[in-house]
Give the backbone structure.
Amino acid sequence: MYTQEYAECCPVPNTYRVYIYISYLDTVHFFRPKLYHQHVYHEILIGYLDNVKQHGYMYAHIWDCPANEGVDYIFCCRPPEQLLSKLKRLQDWCRKMLDKAIAERLVIDY
Protein backbone atom coordinates (compact mmCIF):
# COMPACT_ATOMS: atom_id res chain seq x y z
CA MET A 1 0.00 0.00 0.00
CA TYR A 2 1.37 3.42 -0.95
CA THR A 3 -0.04 6.36 0.97
CA GLN A 4 0.47 10.10 1.22
CA GLU A 5 -0.66 12.08 4.23
CA TYR A 6 -1.45 15.78 3.92
CA ALA A 7 -1.70 17.71 7.18
CA GLU A 8 -2.75 21.32 7.85
CA CYS A 9 0.83 22.53 7.40
CA CYS A 10 1.08 21.37 3.77
CA PRO A 11 1.68 23.95 1.05
CA VAL A 12 -0.92 24.96 -1.53
CA PRO A 13 -3.01 23.29 -2.93
CA ASN A 14 -3.21 20.93 0.06
CA THR A 15 -3.34 23.54 2.83
CA TYR A 16 -6.02 22.86 5.49
CA ARG A 17 -7.42 19.80 3.73
CA VAL A 18 -6.14 17.21 6.26
CA TYR A 19 -6.52 14.08 4.17
CA ILE A 20 -4.76 10.90 3.20
CA TYR A 21 -4.43 9.45 -0.25
CA ILE A 22 -4.07 5.71 -0.82
CA SER A 23 -2.58 5.51 -4.28
CA TYR A 24 -1.78 1.82 -4.71
CA LEU A 25 -2.95 -1.42 -3.19
CA ASP A 26 -1.11 -4.51 -4.35
CA THR A 27 -1.09 -8.17 -3.39
CA VAL A 28 0.50 -11.41 -4.38
CA HIS A 29 -1.39 -14.63 -3.90
CA PHE A 30 1.04 -16.32 -1.51
CA PHE A 31 -1.01 -15.48 1.61
CA ARG A 32 -2.16 -18.64 3.39
CA PRO A 33 -4.72 -19.78 4.28
CA LYS A 34 -6.45 -18.22 1.29
CA LEU A 35 -9.76 -18.28 3.18
CA TYR A 36 -8.58 -15.30 5.29
CA HIS A 37 -6.96 -13.32 2.48
CA GLN A 38 -9.74 -10.74 2.03
CA HIS A 39 -10.41 -10.41 5.77
CA VAL A 40 -6.76 -9.73 6.59
CA TYR A 41 -6.34 -7.13 3.84
CA HIS A 42 -9.57 -5.42 4.91
CA GLU A 43 -8.29 -5.30 8.49
CA ILE A 44 -4.97 -3.79 7.38
CA LEU A 45 -6.77 -1.00 5.52
CA ILE A 46 -9.32 -0.42 8.27
CA GLY A 47 -6.51 -0.35 10.84
CA TYR A 48 -4.68 2.25 8.78
CA LEU A 49 -7.84 4.37 8.44
CA ASP A 50 -8.37 4.13 12.20
CA ASN A 51 -4.78 5.16 12.88
CA VAL A 52 -4.86 8.23 10.65
CA LYS A 53 -8.25 9.20 12.07
CA GLN A 54 -6.73 9.14 15.57
CA HIS A 55 -4.02 11.48 14.26
CA GLY A 56 -6.58 14.03 13.08
CA TYR A 57 -7.00 13.17 9.41
CA MET A 58 -10.55 13.82 8.26
CA TYR A 59 -10.71 12.58 4.66
CA ALA A 60 -9.32 9.70 2.64
CA HIS A 61 -9.07 9.25 -1.10
CA ILE A 62 -8.55 5.72 -2.42
CA TRP A 63 -7.32 5.26 -5.97
CA ASP A 64 -9.40 2.28 -7.05
CA CYS A 65 -7.97 1.16 -10.37
CA PRO A 66 -6.81 -2.34 -11.35
CA ALA A 67 -3.22 -2.99 -12.33
CA ASN A 68 -2.30 -3.20 -15.98
CA GLU A 69 -1.05 -6.44 -17.46
CA GLY A 70 2.74 -6.58 -17.27
CA VAL A 71 3.01 -3.61 -14.90
CA ASP A 72 4.12 -4.25 -11.32
CA TYR A 73 3.37 -1.52 -8.81
CA ILE A 74 4.60 -2.55 -5.38
CA PHE A 75 5.55 -6.20 -5.69
CA CYS A 76 7.85 -6.76 -8.62
CA CYS A 77 7.64 -9.97 -10.58
CA ARG A 78 4.02 -10.87 -9.89
CA PRO A 79 3.53 -14.64 -10.41
CA PRO A 80 2.44 -15.19 -14.03
CA GLU A 81 -0.48 -17.40 -12.96
CA GLN A 82 -1.94 -14.69 -10.71
CA LEU A 83 -4.98 -13.12 -12.35
CA LEU A 84 -5.48 -9.37 -12.17
CA SER A 85 -8.71 -8.06 -10.70
CA LYS A 86 -11.13 -6.31 -13.00
CA LEU A 87 -12.42 -2.84 -12.10
CA LYS A 88 -15.85 -4.04 -10.90
CA ARG A 89 -14.35 -6.70 -8.63
CA LEU A 90 -11.87 -4.23 -7.15
CA GLN A 91 -14.61 -1.65 -6.55
CA ASP A 92 -16.81 -4.29 -4.87
CA TRP A 93 -13.86 -5.29 -2.68
CA CYS A 94 -13.33 -1.65 -1.60
CA ARG A 95 -17.05 -1.13 -0.97
CA LYS A 96 -17.16 -4.20 1.25
CA MET A 97 -14.16 -2.93 3.21
CA LEU A 98 -15.68 0.56 3.57
CA ASP A 99 -19.05 -0.88 4.62
CA LYS A 100 -17.25 -2.78 7.37
CA ALA A 101 -15.42 0.41 8.43
CA ILE A 102 -18.78 2.23 8.59
CA ALA A 103 -20.21 -0.56 10.75
CA GLU A 104 -17.20 -0.12 13.07
CA ARG A 105 -17.84 3.67 13.13
CA LEU A 106 -14.44 4.49 11.64
CA VAL A 107 -15.78 5.85 8.35
CA ILE A 108 -18.82 8.11 8.02
CA ASP A 109 -19.57 7.85 4.31
CA TYR A 110 -18.07 7.14 0.93
